[in-house]
Amino acid sequence: MEEKILEEQIYELIEKRQFSKLRSLLEDMNAADIAELFEEVSDKDVTVIFRILPKELAAEVFVEMDSDRQQLLIEAFSDKELREVMDELFMDDTVDIIDEMPATVAKRILKQTDAATRKMINQLLAYPDDSAGSIMTTEYIDLKKDMTVEDAFDRIRKIGTDSEQIYTCYVTDRSRHLLGIVSVKDLLLNSKDCVLKEIMDDNIIFANTLDDKEDVAGMFEKYDILALPVVDKENRLVGIVTVDDAIDVMQEEASEDIEKMAAILPSEKTYLKTGVFETFKARIPWLLFLMISATFTGAIISSFEDKLTKYAALIAFIPMLMGTGGNSGSQSSVTVIRALSLGDIEFKDIWRVIWKELRVSLVCGVILGVVNFIKLYLVDYLLLHSFDSAVVVAEMLTVCLTLVFVVIVAKLVGSILPILAKKIGFDPAVMASPLVTTILDAVSLIIYFGIAAQILGF
Amino acid sequence: MEEKILEEQIYELIEKRQFSKLRSLLEDMNAADIAELFEEVSDKDVTVIFRILPKELAAEVFVEMDSDRQQLLIEAFSDKELREVMDELFMDDTVDIIDEMPATVAKRILKQTDAATRKMINQLLAYPDDSAGSIMTTEYIDLKKDMTVEDAFDRIRKIGTDSEQIYTCYVTDRSRHLLGIVSVKDLLLNSKDCVLKEIMDDNIIFANTLDDKEDVAGMFEKYDILALPVVDKENRLVGIVTVDDAIDVMQEEASEDIEKMAAILPSEKTYLKTGVFETFKARIPWLLFLMISATFTGAIISSFEDKLTKYAALIAFIPMLMGTGGNSGSQSSVTVIRALSLGDIEFKDIWRVIWKELRVSLVCGVILGVVNFIKLYLVDYLLLHSFDSAVVVAEMLTVCLTLVFVVIVAKLVGSILPILAKKIGFDPAVMASPLVTTILDAVSLIIYFGIAAQILGF
Predict the structure, then answer these.
(1) Domain that holds residue A93
(2) Does A318 touch chain B (CB under 8 A)?
(3) What is the pLDDT at residue B116?
């Protein structure tokens, strides 16, 4: 409630051009909240209001904005203003921003940085998009093993303001090899003249620059750490990943998996910020592919057309059988995909997965079959009279037996495909619902007509 | 590779009962890794090996184990051993463990704690499962506003060992009202005799004990914080949530959403640790519901049976039309659900969502319709001869027009339902794929037969 009132007040001040009052209100706010407020403010007003923010806060707000707005502001900045904002940013944020900008804007930003920074930025830009290197920052506290606790605090005081994370410090040798880790907690709880090599932890958890950023995020979850050192091929410390960036990766990866499971090409923007054409492009490829691949199910039905017109009651159960197969399969595939991405199962567990799914599917299949038989008898036969009475039991048996087999096959296919996909280097999430469902649609029909052939003599 | 060798070595040492060598190996390892190793070790061996670990490490390993193993160990512990482990644990971990244990074991644990701790544990246990209170810890650094930086460091040194998070400190008044926040970074970068009220940040981000833990986790993502203070109804500070627990909540919630979207009842255990019967129980309710609800699609088809046997070619396209409808709908519903849970859209955005989905679905529908017409002509008509040639164009038109309308309806239903569900207090994730698909299956058929009636004079 209070928040709403504050918002209204700010929008009013903007309209009335009362900038000094506005400034004192914004000064007390959090950067993320200001950026959110700015989303509803016109482009023109944003460029004006942005300039009244205190320098440091302005830079923080800048980082939180989406890239369209950032570009707009950069284009409105003088070179001096641009330099001022860029000076306040951490290296990883600078790189992210440059990465999102069109070439001309990126060039202009780079021009405002000194040669050393420019070199560093270009190095960071060169890391692949999904690597640890692409999310790390180069600003961290490095210490030497012969320093005392007091020396360490002096160094933290000296370079701390420019470091994104000061609570985990890294002890390196002359050629920047990582020797150990000292937390500020360790420093605080030891006496001033303690030497770092006595108190540092040399059992170091670290990542390589080219490690998958998803695995890196997983390490934060597993080890409950606030920062992770990243080393290059020669084992030299080149940067750190901080927990806030790891969290962003986790949420992105979860969103990506969810999108892939729903047959959408993953996007990095939020829903409302993605244009109609972009959304269309993300959705149409799988829709087209799945529509065309449904030709198989169509062809299978066509080839049994004559028999189906004879046992017309069977047609009505096609959607139910295919639906149950699809649902059973995607239950298994989705569970297995999530377990794979959280690291709960690996390829070596495939037999345990198969054995488990086999038992689960047997129980599910039999129960569904029995319940369906009762439902068919009570609803479809007695109530709706939708069976040809001459072969009613045979038809009902066909439907229910199909159900049992479809569920078993669906759960096995659904659980095995993602594991195999991962093994051969494909993305398991793509194996999820839609593709598994399409395969299972065809398999369900083949099972259905196969059983019908046995029982009804198709 | 190295990891594998270490593992083998450890298993060998266990087998050979070389405990002193084993101890020196384990001492250098991380608690999370040891707990993972223990998963493959027999129950009997674990109770033996656990006792050779140094006390503090033992407690850390204990926290990382799953609850079955924890229970096993507790039952094997003497009262003294139990007290030793419990003494090393942070309050939030103690509460989590007690929460998972059967009543008799929980009672035994509580017996080993002093009256004050027991009271605190019982208070924490009383918070609802999905609340901020249920994930907070009560061990934090509290400071007073008249303290100097030096006083603050003294207090951190005094109570820091027992605090889960020391880098954000909380300035409170006598009745524990939160006045401000001081980070250790602020303390380090200011001179020793600075008074806290001068440097503390009084623009505090906080949560209430009964806030939804998912919202709390979202605040960590938005504000990039390491800990969040939690206050009670009287605005008194009662605990803090640390970033590692927020990460666990995020991953749990993402898994839960994914499970619900795949028509599975969410579970808290990992895949391989969930028993066959539990997995069955999580999957069968939706399978049964969706199977029974497919009666509607069956009934719709049955009622058009006579006409379908006349235009038999149309039967073959039922799976394709229902499939495309289902896929289109779940693309929209899944995207909207994820956006809702990340806070990217709210109820007030419903018109923007509808307007966007309308345009996207129009483009998708028309393209799918046109491509399908070409495919029908080239493949089904010329190649497979699956059309009754007398009314071939009419039949093809029926299929393609249905496609256009089905995609539009599917995307609108898929995007609107989750938003409405959330508005009236239901879980939007449950509205996803399976339920939306079932509704769309029936709608697709009605559109199909409706258009067929117009064009073919059904």
Answers:
(1) 2-126
(2) yes
(3) 87
